[in-house]
Amino acid sequence: MPVDLIVTCAVGFEDLFRGDLLQEHGIRSRSIEPGEILLQDVEDLGFLTSAVALDRVALPWDPDAPSDVIADVVRRLAGDAGIEQPVRFRVQAAPDVREELIARFSDGAGWVNAPSDWQVNLDVERGVAQLGPLAWAARFGTLRRLPAATPVSVVAGLLRLAKCAPHDLLLDPCAGVATVPIVDAIERPDGRCIVLDRDVEAVDLARRNLAERGLDRRIEVSAGDAARLDLADRSVDRVVTDLPFGKRIGSNSNNIELYPRVLREIERVLTLSGRCVLLTDDKRVFKDALARTRGLKIVREQVVRYHGVNPSAYVVTRSRAPGRRAR
Ligand SMILES: C[S@@+](CC[C@H](N)C(=O)[O-])C[C@H]1O[C@@H](n2cnc3c(N)ncnc32)[C@H](O)[C@@H]1O
User: Fold this and answer.
1) Whose CA is nearest to atom 27 of ligand 1?
2) Which of 106, 267, 287, 324 is most exposed, with minimal Cβ within 10 Å?
3) Domain spanning 152-318: which superfamily?
4) Ligand 1 in reach of 229 Cβ (< 6 A)
5) Where are the alpha helices (DSSP H) in the chain?
């Protein structure tokens, strides 16, 4: 029997991902909150094994309904959702409501209250039963992170905008802990990717993240400067990167120097049909630098929101063939 699911994704990319769900999996949906989508009449959870854009997965749940209503749905999905019996759960609610719900589900549905090892999280405020084994980290594994690491669901949106073909060479010149190549590898298992970062701690974590996923032979990480790429002219098909915003990493005045240099290098290494998706919150500095970079233009700006920032993902392509004078 089909079920409705409530899934979360990066704020700003809802419509893009909804279109993909319809086109690729025939799943109808509607946005219910920023970053929250209701998927309607889902027949099969199989699509989640490749849905890198979706972060948390939950069932709509009415906290006032008897426990067997949601318990029946969870029982039906248990095999496909990786939920063991008896169901281990926790309740997110004010203390008095929590106690009442723990008793209701323990007595009525035979579930076991396990706040530190739950598989189903009953969230009273949001009215959802979150399914732990279907969360991004449970489906695709956890990553070693740094404070400035880009959320995986945001990276999924950047990669979606980049439209990488299976054998395109993808570059992330400010790769941090390697979130971009790792999310990319889920969708492009044979995709080629070059990543670098100036920070040695980030490079170390990136290498460990890649090694733990068996990607270290295929994807090489080096310590390097995005403004001095050791790459041939016209050799890179796609550039996807989360630039330093000048808040946690670097500074606004550094970016005034850094962005023009990085953009010049990107222009040099990009193939004629190349495409870049560059994320930054230092928008004025970025747009000024881009306007002064001959040969590149912004074709789309998508504002996203996470962790209290509202950066833009700029889709950048060539404005004209390199070496040819504008008339
Ligand atoms: C916003 S973080 C990128 C986060 C990354 N996407 C991740 O998920 O970990 C920006 C990164 O740019 C790096 N960076 C700053 N200046 C750089 C430069 N000139 N060359 C290469 N990397 C640089 C920083 O060390 C930092 O890791």
Assistant:
1) 176
2) 324
3) Vaccinia Virus protein VP39 (3.40.50.150)
4) no
5) 14-25, 67-81, 95-109, 136-140, 152-162, 179-187, 200-212, 252-269, 283-291
